[in-house]
Amino acid sequence: MAVTRRRPSSxxxxxxxxxxxxxxxxCFIYPWLHYPWTCPPPPSDGNTALSQVINTTSIERPAxxxxxxxxxxxxxxxxxxxxxxxxxGAARLATFSKELEYSQLRxxxxxxxxxxxxxxxxxxxxxxxxxxxSAPTCEMLHGPVMAQQALINKxxxxxxxxxxxVLYTLENPAKDAYQWNRPLLWLRLLxxxxxxxxxxxxxxxxxxxxxLGFTIPFASYKPYDIVMWGNxxxxxxxxxxxxxxxxxxMFKTSQFxxxxxxxxxxxxxxxxxxxxxxxxxxxxxxxxxxPQFLNDQAAAAYLFRTVGAERWRERVHFETSYYLNGYWKxxxxxxxxxxxxxxxxxxxxxxxxxxxxxxxxxxRAMSDYKQCVDYFEKSFQFAMNETARKEMAxxxxxxGDAM
Length: 403
Known about the structure:
The chain is α/β, with parallel strands linked by helices and 403 residues long. The chain contains 14 helices and 13 strands.
């Protein structure tokens, strides 16, 4: 008796029997073929230090850019949550300089506070605490590397200025609203170190000091308690909060500075008590185009425009005699020219290049992220490598002779 092969009873069964297995097989093979095998391997466990994965202070990026300025390495980094928490790589810089003595403290929230103090401080100059804080977690692969580079840059500045100590922490006191981290840390610093330092110089973690040899003229700030970068006319006349930059701000360790920061934080508390619409309406009467979410910069602009503004204006100085807070897009694209002018004409570069808005840890500024990383690396090398600057200037001279 002949055995007849049973045919599929329906088209649906045929699809289920042949097509579905092929699709599943493809889903398995495709990720394997596209897995970024050349990227750093993840730690073997959650306790492995990130420094074992990223053990260099130079940024090495894969050539291929996946999209939006993000590399395959960045996406690999997102797959491993244990990589996101920054290791305490600052401790690795304990012996960065023979001139600085390293120590650790604990904040009231049990965060490690790293300090580098001058071994032989210059007692003839005002004593300055250069303070900075980085995000406790980094979503992007290169975030911790750039954070460490920025810290190295600040330590290099202190090494050249014997009246400057450095404080660095990963604490995030405003867990519910990151935009209030700065004033909360300012307040703690001013209260804790008031008797130990004449000035607290706050420098955001995403700022690179370009002119490491520049001595800040604290003697000229004697009539003032707070020094910031900004446009006085626009801040006072129209309340343009974007004309104020608080990423690099100097606070005299005085009661006035404490009161000013307290007043900024009062705006945060007021925002919690009032309805969002009511607060926005009040702010809109004082400043132009207020941000959707109130922050320290907008709060400062509000204080300069409301009742009692003269009290604040009298003791706050907007520094414009040198480029205290350089915007990264403006400065980054001119670094080659700046290096040339410094070598040939002895023209000072901007004091800093501030990567505000780059979100170097989170990568939120997707469209600009690659440019941010490129300019950051270039700024770091500009500041830290004097030899490279001289070679660049020599190349410009040779090019001019050839023409």
